[in-house]
Structure formats: C-alpha cells, structure tokens
Amino acid sequence: MDELNVIVITDQGTAGSAIRAGQIHATTAVSGLQVEDMLKLADNLKGQYTLYWQPVNNVEHFFANTERDPWKDTSIIKALRRATDLREMQKAFGNGYYGYGAPFPPDAWYASKTEDLLKLPGFNEPKEPDIEEALATLKAAGYDHPSKLGKRVLTVPIVLYWPDVAQLWAAQMRRNLGIEIELKLVDVPTAVTTWVSGEFDMGSWGYGYNITDPDDYVNAIYGPGSRNYTRWKKPEFLEMLQVQLSELDKAKRLETLRKMENMLFEESPYIELFWAKRNYIVSDKLRTEAGAFVPAETIQTALKWEHVWLQS
User: Fold this and answer.
1) Which of 110-114, 172-176, 227-231, 292-296 has the lowest mean pLDDT?
2) What family does the entry list (predicted)?
3) Looking at the DSSP assignment, which residues form a beta bridge with residue 60?
4) In angstroms, rounded to a whole number, what is the distance separating the alpha carbons of residues 178 and 176?
5) β-strands 152-157, 99-100 pairing
6) pLDDT tens digit string along 103-130?
C-alpha cells in the first residue's frame, strides 16, 4: 500500500454503509459499531470481509471514590455489586460474546473460570438472594433503608455504549435497592479530568490492558498508579502485588494472584459489569506475511500495522 488513512466516523450507520460500499478496508478493535452491527456486516459481506475476534481484554466497570463517604466503607460498594444484575448486562450488551464482570479477566490463566464465577454470590439467577444479601450488608453498615445513601452521582462519558450501560444500571439500583443514581453525562476529557482530580462521587469507565499479564491490568487498576481512580489502597493487597511481581515460579505466583482475586470479591472498589471481547471486520483483500489478517491480542496494539498489502 502507498498509504494508510485512518478515518474517524462517529455515526454507526455511516460507518456501516462505508464498509458495505468497500470504502473501509478494516476497523480498529474499538469502534462505534456494536457486536450486533459487526455480526450483521460479517453475514452480509461473507466472502468479501471476515470478522476477527480478540480474547476478552477490556473490563468495563463503575467505581466509587473511596476517599469520600459513604464509599470509604467498601462494604457499601460490595452491596451495590451484589445487587447488580450481571446476567441482564450480558443480555443487553455483547450478544453473548462478552465475559462476565469479575475482578480479573474470566478464563485468563490467573483468574477464575466462567463456570466457577457463575456459582459465586452476585451471579445468581433469580436475583432475589443477592438482593437480600445486599440489603443486609447495607443495614449492617448503618443504612437500614438504602435510600439513606441519598442520591448518588455517576459521571458517564458520552462514548460507545456508556450512556446506555449507565441507564440500565441506574434502573437496576432503583428496582433492586431503591437507590437513586443521577447520571452526569460529559465528554471523555472532562470525565478523565474529573476522575484524576478526585472531584467525583462515582465514575464509569474501563481499562484495556497492553499485555496479557497481571502486572499490567492488576497493577494499573488496583495498584498505586494513575489509572486507579478509586484511590483504594489496601496494604495487604499491595504487598501481594509486589510478591507476585518478583515470583519466578508460576504456580506460586498463581497462588498469590488467586488470593488477591478472592480479596477483591469481598473488597473491590469497582462494580465490574462485563469484559468486552473486541473485534475487527477486515476486507479479505488485506493480506499479511502470515496470509490472512492476524488480530492483536489486546486493544492497545490495534494500530500496529507491518508487512500489510492489498490484493488487486
């Protein structure tokens, strides 16, 4: 190819039309097109375009500012997490391709298997046992009725599916606990600035890791780095984070990481919603030295293109 043009199309209908017209040869792993859009395109353009999938690598979650009340008590976050209907989230987003919301990426070598997650509290169907436990947890924390938490404010970036995800979750909190969540819709730069400054109540965002190792994801989200917008600091957890960092025996490292995961099920400052499984739709004319297009394992390597050409 003589050149590679990256075109930003914010309207989903326009993007889909451009692909169908052959004006777009490939998408990046993160686009405004949702899973159902990609599946339809792949079906309509079979023999001309192919849909490629990455492993789950991008968590989407809500989080609370643990330097502020009432979130200093992480049991309250746990209660909201228990009352979150993860199965409803699965039905609403991802067409069944996404992973369930969990502290670590489901089915990763250092995380719980999906079949084991679905046996844990918080993943129940019907949801009533989780709701009862959430109400009991809030009562023990001094909120004998959840409405005593007052109206909470959730900062939501206007990008991708976030406004829709936030509306569904706010409806769940109202339905399951009687808690009112006010949605504050802002652009992405405003949202990130708000979280970095600490001037927020709750936030909605996610993280797509760079490499498939806990030293990236776990350190970024739960460690002392800048992406831990929650300000959550647990000395015991941070100590284990350092232990696994220098452990060369994979079995021993895994043992430490599983202890960390179990701690997060109890005390995580996040309400994990789902793990997105990103995808690309690519023209079959696009070739590489390996033959067909080869998708990257993580979204952060989506724009690294080498030894690529178009067949005439």
Assistant:
1) 292-296
2) Belongs to the bacterial solute-binding protein 5 family.
3) 206, 274
4) 6
5) unpaired
6) 999 999 999 999 999 999 888 888 999 9
Q: What's the whole-model pTM score?
A: 0.90
Contacts of 161 (CB under 8 A, 6+ apart): 34, 93
Q: What string of DSSP letters covers 157-195?
A: ESSTTHHHHHHHHHHHHHHHH---EEEEEE-HHHHHHHH
Coil vs helix vs strand at 236: helix
Detail the DSSP E strand segments found in the chain: 49-53, 58-64, 99-100, 152-157, 181-186, 202-208, 270-276, 279-283, 286-288, 308-310
270-276: strand order across its sheet: 99-100, 270-276, 58-64, 202-208, 152-157, 181-186
**Residue (of 243, 240, 259) closest to 111 by Cα position:** 259
Query: In Å, how far are 75, 180, 294 from 135, measured between CA atoms?
Result: 11, 15, 48
Q: Work out the number of other CB atoms within 10 angstroms of the CB of residue 193.
A: 13
Other beta carbons within 10 angstroms of residue 204's beta carbon come to: 23
Q: 3-state SS string over 103-120?
A: CCCCCCCCCCCHHHHCCC
The answer to whether the CB of 157 falls within 8 A of the CB of 204 is yes
Burial class (CB in 10 A: 0-12, 13-18, 19+), 184: middle
Peptide bond into 70 cis (omega under 30): yes
